Amino acid sequence: MKEMSSTMLSGQQSQKHYGITSAISLAPPREIDHHYTKKLCDAMQPFGVFEDEEELNHRLAVLGKLNNFVKEWIAEISELKNLPPSAISCVGGKIFTFGSYRLGVHTKGADIDALCVAPRHVERTDFFQSFFEKLKQHEEIKDLRAVEDAFVPVIKFKFDGIEIDLLFARLALPSIPDNLDLRGDSILKNLDIRCIRSLNGCRVTDEILYLVPNKENFRLTLRAIKLWAKRRGIYSNMLGFLGGVSWAMLVARTCQLYPNAVAATLVHKFFLVFSKWEWPNPVLLKQPEDSNLNLPVWDPRVNPSDRYHLMPIITPAYPQQNSTYNVSTSTRTIMSEEFKYGLSVTDEILQGKAEWSKLFEPPHFFQKYKHYIVLAASASTEENHLEWIGLVESKIRVLVGNLERNEYITLAHVNPQSFPGSKENRNENDFVSMWFIGIIFKKMENAESVNIDLTYDIQSFTDTVYRQANNINMLKNGMKIEATHVKKKQLNLYLPPELVQKKKRSIADLNRSSNGGSSKRISLDSSHLDSSRDTDTGTPFSSPPCKQSKPASDTEDRWDSCSTSITVAGSVLEMGGIPLSSLEKPIVPSPPAEPSVKAKPPSPPAVSAVLAGDVKPNAASSPKEEPNGLDDSINGAPAKRPHSPVEEEMAKRHKDAEVTGLFSAVSLSEPKAKPIPTIDTSRTQRLPSMELPDASSPLPASNSCRVVKNSIKLALNRHK
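^ that's the sequence the OP posted. Answer follows.
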């Protein structure tokens, strides 16, 4: 008995070390929590998120074969390089996995992200030449292709029906033992930047698993949150939402705050914590460490561009990076409102008023807005089309940023799912993909009508895409981009009726949509932080009403496109950081400035304690576990009373105190740090230099291709 109580005590003490603050609640799960968790698993089952034993064993067998294949190849290379036989016998080599498979949350038919680790005498050129040729000769390997000049170089192939993306890292070691641990920072010494990037995925994934209290509860919760994000259309690192690694870190932080909770409770607490999170305060799983290797890390005190990151989620492995630098003002607004909506739904579920299936219902993107931009990318062959849309999709967030900076636009909401072009709107032999961006126009006071010209916003985007394609020698005859403004009632010209009209979808449809229908494409957007490179597509959607929704809807009721003689044509291109006052302590951003006013980067604050100082948890401020209660509903409408006005008020007060307690539990070794200026959040974050259009790159010469620059203008009239 004494031994058992001693074990429990040491377990509770160890839980206090997860994360940079103490836990919000150490309460053990109740019987009802296990019941809700089982119902959550049942609700996820139809979406194909769980793999059966046979499929799992097949993956393990394929990875075993690939690991032996790598060892065999490294031994052959070692012999060619005249290593002594004694060294060849123990030279080793190993396959590591990362991303969703390593985290244990991969879905049926998902690919595997893997890393080939080789000793110092094996060169990267060997990997892309001799190993590539060896793979070619293997009868079980199909669809083999190498992308050597990518930001993170990769070989992609199917091994016995399983898609694998294989990276390469050469360590400064004479041999690679089977028990090699990649978590230690010392393995990064004397490596080139491409090897460091390739190692980053494994190191981040392993660190996340190390930092969660209960891996099984973490995995089940992450499966639910990933499914929810895909269903709600906010799962895409490339388009400015969050990717797999970012969602994993948010779930991991929730697990740290509720170390003993089971999945049903953790899903609810996830929405509670992040619906009340005051961005741009960073989410960290551990105190950042400096390994003195002089690698660039996320640090808004040193890097001015880091101060413009709107929703920082910092990877726990050195070199620490922000995995969400693609997030824009619009995508953050959309995700914030989805967190609030998720909280209201899980409140209902845990009160027995709704089923878990409600959480996974897709919104109706094509009924949400009155105005849309239709972006179409087309090419004359299927191969060119796949290559072209990969580039165009990776730059759509540039277009969203351009639209956000337009003084007449409040929100630009891109639907992550692309759609095939309709036969009526394309040439018979063209391959076309379309993306839709919902637009909310700003309410203009004291104006009967206003003319809006989006030509420059569209054209600067097409120029960016063209320059990138030109720089990597991708452009081919027939590749073009076209952007068109349409009203909601015109969407039927581009989409089938079942997408435009509200309609309940069957479980089979939901399952197909969840798994995605398109194959993975090579990402050209230089994003290496979302190492899982998960490109699952979601369903057409709209976000629930957000803070701007009320005035925005009022604007939409009073402003609309009028019938004018102006042709709303497309722009056609045709080939012919934030300073920190404390870690995870929220600050309230200042009201958005007018879009025409450029924000100046704030001066780096004197907060040496922020990234290096000790975080001292205040145990007294950690609130107790609260009873389940409804929060205010998302539109500001009063929530239904749980029992009585007094109980309702107490439930709300407990809920607010819970997360407020999290932030107030943080104190710094420098209590009198200077106040930190807030950032003008109306300005889109500054993109990394590699994402900006290269002004030195010339536009196409007239004798090599044709650029058609049509205008896209519309007029809004006030309805009296």
